[in-house]
Every structure is written in C-alpha cells, then in structure tokens.
Amino acid sequence: MFERLFAENGLSLDRLRALLEVGASGSIVKATHGDPVRQSQYSRQIKELEDFFRVKLVEREGSGTRLTASGKELVRLSRFFLLGLSNFRRGCLEEEQIFRVGASATFIQKFLVPSLAAEAGNGTRYVFEVARGDEIERRLHELTLDFGVTTHSEISRPLQMREIGGWKVKLCVPRKLFDHPRGARRAFNVKKLPLILPMAELDNETTEALKAYEPRLICESFLTARVAAEREQLAVVLPDFLISGAKAKRFLQIEISPQRAHVCHFRLAWNPRLVRLNPHVGRTVEFLGKVLGDEMKKVTRFKKFEKAVGPHAA
Hints:
- Helices cover 42% and strands 22% of the residues.
- By secondary structure, the protein is α/β, with parallel strands linked by helices.
- It is elongated.
C-alpha cells in the first residue's frame, strides 16, 4: 500500500519537522536560532524533501523563507500526522494534556487566567497566547492553536464555535473634561473628544462605528488603554466593567451610538479535526465553554446573547 513512499530515501520525521519549523518561523535562521550547523542541516533536509516529492516546497522572500502552495499542504498534512503521534505517545505515557488557547490580552487576564488557575494540577496544562481574530482563525486551521476566543460572528469551515458571553463597550469620559453627558456627546459627534482607542481589541462593529475618528492615542489592548485613561486627560473606549467602584465615579459612561448599545460577543472556536486526534478535545470544549461562560456572567453581568449558546459553524 505504501511501497512507493519507502522505495527511495528522502522522507523522514526529522525532515518533516525541519519544514514545519522553517514554515512557522519564516526563515531557516530563525528556525535554527542562528546556529550555522543546524542551518546547513535544515537546508539539506528541506532539499531532500523537495527531491523526494519532485516539487518546490520553500522559496526566498526578502531575507526570509516562505512556503510554496505545495509546502503549505505538506506542512498541513505533516502537522496533523505529528500531532496524532504526539497525542498517542502522551496517552501511552499517561502524560498531562497541553492545550494552546489564543485570545486578546484583556480576555486572557480577566477571564482565562481566573477561570483556569484553579485547574492547575488536574492533568491539563494551558498555554495562553495573545492573538487577534484573523490570526486565531488561521492558526486553528493550521492546528498551531487548539482553541481560540474570538468576536467574529462567522468562521470558515470546518472550524466550529460556541458563544460564551459578551460585554458592553462604552465611551468613558473623565469628568475633568465634561461634567455632563450632553457635552461629551456633542464633542464626540463632531470628533473633538480627545480619545484613546485600543484598536487591536475592538470588534468589527465598533471599529466600523469609529472608523472616521482620529484618536489621540492608539493602544494594543483595553488594559493598556485603561492605564492611560486613569490620568483623566483623555476619553477611552472600554468594556463597562473595566472602570468600576470608586474610579467609575470619575468618568461619564455613554453609548458609542445613541440608538443602541455596542456589545462584543465572544465565542470559543476550535477545529473539529483535533477531536479525531485527541478525545480530550471534545471534553475540553464543554469544560471551557462552561467555565468561561460562568466567569463572564459573573464579571460582566451581561446575559443577553444574540442566540442561545451552542456549537455552530459558518
């Protein structure tokens, strides 16, 4: 059945690993951490794979290396195969499960860490990685993330999602700038409100509503924007729960659009192909969906969703 695969030299797990690492890092130098001996080894191994398959797998791009279409397909097949082997070995040795979860910096700090800190030591280890929506979707397809938390309402097949909660996003305006919502609203409408925008964490709908605005500061995350806002010199777009208690009294909180509230809906996403490789994935989907949903309800007090919680795919 596989006679032709083993009829000649050139195919091995080491060679496939070299291709995966070069594809993930973008260059042989980065994949080998500058080690000249390993650079020569990786170059040779990739060339041997190209000779074996009779196809170009990588090509130069500036000072780096990128995968060709054939290279990307071989990486996809190899990662799936190697993940299966890795999970099989982990099960044979009864080693702990390791899951990589991608989400925004704010979501990681406010929900993932509190929800999963209590689970340390139960045989499962979680690795959190800061990632945006499009990157999360791509990496779920590539199987370099096991789970992602996204605000996207649709996702490409075969990926699946389930809704876990949401938070309301508002304009938080220091009372030092305006002592009444009407003044703050007028300044915002004519784009004269000095504003901080955490662009990397705004959902598409809120980004669209603010696309014509020129902010004074642009931050990567809501948490960074909140730190800047605490000087009370600039207004900021934030989830309403991030400014609470005594600090909330120093800010006016107004809707971005007077007609309706802006709500970010969060969804847990995963690649169902992983379930075939590792039965723990299915159980972890249910676990993460419950604990993250419970934590979001507790912190945000937001309970109305666009649709009932449940798996769905685009």
